[in-house]
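Moderator note: this is an archived Q&A kept for reference. The question asked for a predicted structure of one protein chain; the sequence and the answer are reproduced below.
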Amino acid sequence: MASSRGAGDDDDGAGGRGASRERFAHAKAVFCAALDQSPAERRAFVVRACDGDAGLRLEVESLLASDEGADSFIEVPAAALTPLASGPDVCAAVPPGREGGGSDRAPQFVSGARLGPYLIEVLLGSGGMGEVYRALDTRLRRRVAIKIVSAAETDAKGRAALLREARHASVLSHPGICTVYEVSEAEGRPFIVLEYVEGETLRSAIDRAGGLAPATVLRHGASVADALEHAHRHGVIHRDLKSANVMVADDGRVKVLDFGLARWAPEAAELQASATLTTQALGLAGTLHCMAPELLGGARADARSDVWSLGVLLFEMVSGRRPFSGQTAFDTASAIMRAGAPVFPPRVPLGLRLVIGKCLSRDPARRYQSAADVGAALAALQGRGRGRVVARLAADKVKARVVTSVVAATVLAAALVLTGGDSGARHAAGARLQPMRALVVLPLEDAAGGGADRYFVEGITEALIAEAGKAGVNRVISRTTAMLFRGAPKTPTAVARELGVDAVVEGSVTRTSGRVRLSLRLLDGSNGRLVWSAVEQRDEREVLALVSRAARGIAAAMRYAMTEARERRLAAVRAVDPVVYEAYLKGRYYWNERTTASLQRAIGYYKEAIARDPTYAPAHASLADCYNQLGTVMVSTGSPGTFRPLAEGSTIKALQIDPEFAEAHATLGYIRHYEWRWADAEREFVRSIDLNPGNPLAHIWYANMLLSQCRFPEALREVELARDLDPFSLVVNTNVGWTLAYAGRHGEAVAQYHRVLDLDPGYVQAHMRLAGALESLGRTAEAIGEHEEVVRLTGGDVIGLAGLAEAYARAGRLPQARALLRQLLDDSRRRYVAPAAVAEIYEQLGDVDAAFEWFEKAYSEHSNKIAYLGVEPHPRLRADPRYAALLRRAGLE
C-alpha cells in the first residue's frame, strides 16, 4: 500500500532542499538557545550567535517574533482571557503576569465607549499586539468578544495577523469552532467580532481537577477531533491547538479557538486563490510543547501535525500534565524529538492509551492520518461506534490452549542459576510451586535513560520473548501486544488479568563501555509476588547468550521441563558483532511498521548487517521477510516473480548457517505455500512451530496455507493460537476475520473486522477484508464505502483502486468500473499492477476471456492469489474448464 514519508527519512530530495533544511536546523538551534536567555540579553545573544550572517539573523529574529506573539492578543482568543470585572469566568488562559488585562498601558476603550454598533462593557485581556473586550451588539442584543489591534501595532504586520485569523475562521462553520461575526475597522485600527463563550478554558478545567475523568476526556476529545476535521476539510490547518485554545462552555460544549496561526493546507489551492497567505515568515509558529516533532525538524504543517497536538491535548486531559517538557525550551524540544513514551496514570483505560499513543507517534505515517480517524476511535471507546475493542479482544483472548509440563526439582534448581560474568539469580522464598502456563515480557526499561538505546532495548525485549518460546514456554505474549504496555503504570496483576497470563517479567537493560547488564524479575500474575530474579552482565558480543540464559531461567522458574534438544540449542548461542546486532535491531524496528517505506529502510539495515557479517542468520531470514512482503498483493510494490526468488535465496542462506532457526523455517514455509509446494510448506511450518511455538506469524502463515486447502477447522485453530500469543495485533486479528470469512462465517468475520477498526480506524487491511465480507453478505453499498475508504487511506494506491473497480462492477455501476480499469491499465505501464486484481475486475464486468488471460499472468508470476482459487467463489469462472485446469496446475484440485 502507499505510505507517507516521515520527517526522519534520510532522502532529502534535491540538494537545495537538503541545504535549506540544514540552514533551518541551524536557525532553530540558535532560536532555542536564545529562548534560554533573559529578554534583555536575547537580542545581543542572537547577534553574537549569527556571527555576521544577516540572513540567519533575520530568520532567527522572525522565529523569536513569532514566539513572542504566541501569547499575545493575536494568538490568545477573545474568549480565552481572564475577565477584569465580576461575572462568569470566560476563560483562565492568560499568559503569566497578564491577569486582569496583562498590560501596564491604559486600555484604549473604557466601559460605555462605542465601536460602531458595539457597546464596550469590559476589557477581558490584552497582550503585546492588542486588546480583547466584551461588548454588547446593540442591534442584536447579544454579547460578543472584540479583538482590536493596539495603537502601536497598526502597521501591516498587525493588520495581516488579525485578518489572517478572521479569514481562516470565517470559512469555518461548525458548532465546535468559535464563530467570527464580523471584520471591521475603528479609527484606522481593524478589529474582529467573535462569538462570546461563557465558561472556562480546557487548561483551566484540567488544572482545577488535576486531570479529567476518562469519560470526560473521550467526550471532549471527540468534539475537538470533529472540529479539527471540519477545519481540515476546508483546507485550514490550526497549527496551535492546545488546552488554552479550547473552551468548555457552561453547558459542557467545547469550542476550538484561535486560528491566528493557522494556514491553508497545500491541497486547498482553490481556497488559497482567494486569500493568499505568506507563512514562511512565521517560522516555528505555534506553542512549543504542542508542536509535532517533524515541525521541529523543518517539515511543513499538515493535518497529521494537528493530530499530534490533539494527542498532546488528550494526554493533558487524562494526566493533568504535558507529555513532553523540560526546564528550558531546548530541553522541551529535545524531549519531543527523542524522549520515551509518556507515562499514563493508572486510571487511564488501555483503549484510550492506545489512541493517545498512536496520535503521539513520532513518524507522521504511523499516526492517525486524519482527525476523523481519531474521533472515530474515541467514539468507539465511548460505546457509540462499534463497541469497546479492548474489552472484546480481552474476552476473545482468554481461550488459551496451552499444555504445561512439570519439572523435577533437581532440574529446576539447576536452571535457576545464571553463571558467568557479574551475575546472580534467585528463586524467591515462599513463591508458588505450581506450574505457570502463560507469560508476558513487559517492555524492558533503558536503565541509562535518554532514549539513545531505544532500538537496542526494544530488540532485547523482542529477543527475550522469542527465546522464552524456544525454551518451551507454550504461550508467550508477542511483541506487538507487549509493547502496548510500555510506560503504563499498571500493576503486574492488572497486566496479567488483562492478558490472561499468570506470569509477568519486568526488568531493565544497561549498555555501557562495551558491557550489557540485564536485570529481570519474574512475578506471579495472580498476586504480584516475586518468583525469580536474575542480574547478569556480559560483554556486548555475548548479548545473545545473555538473553538465552535468561530465557532458560524464566522457563525453569515457571516449571517448564527443558528437553535435551532445547537445552542444547539454547546453549549453542554464538557471539555477535555489536555493530551487526545494532543494524539488525534497527531493521527489526522498521520491519515491524510494515509500510513500503519502512520495509525498504529495514532492507538497508539488514544488508548493512550482512555486509559486515555474512554468517549472521537472523539478518538473512529477516531480509527474506521484507522481500516476501514487498511482493504481496497488499503491499503490491512489485511482482512476486521478482521478489520471491530474492526471499528464497536469503532464506536458504539463513538455514545453511543455522538449520534449526525457527523463523527461517516459517519464512521458507511461506515461500513454499505460494509456490504451491503444499507438502513442503506444511513440513516447514510444523518444524518452525516445533522449534518455537511462540511465534504468531508462523501460526498465521500456517493457517493461510490450511485454508487454501479448505482445511478450515485446522486453520481456525492456528489463527486462534496466534491471537492467544498476540491478542492486540492488528495483523493477527484481521487474519482471524479472514479465516472466518473463508470458512463461510461472514457475519462473525464482519464483527471481527469491526473489532480491529475499533482499535485503529485507519488500518487498511481490515477495511479491505471487511469490504469482501460485506460483499459476501450482499451488503454492496457498505462494501463500496469500505473500498472508497481504502482508496482514501492509501492515497489512490493500485490495490485500493482495483478493489473499488471490482465493487463498482459487482454493483452494476459499469461506467465507473470501466473508467477505473482503464486507469489501472494505464498505470501498469509505469508501475506494478497485480494481474490477479485486474482479472477479478474483468470477471465482474462479465469478460470471462479477459479474466482468464490476466489469471494466466498471475499464475506465471506465482501470485499469492492463485493459492486461494480453491476457496474463492468466482461464480462466473468456476463453470469454465479453464478454472479447473488452473486449480489442477496449482495442486488444488
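Archived answer notes: DSSP finds 36 helices and 18 strands in the chain.
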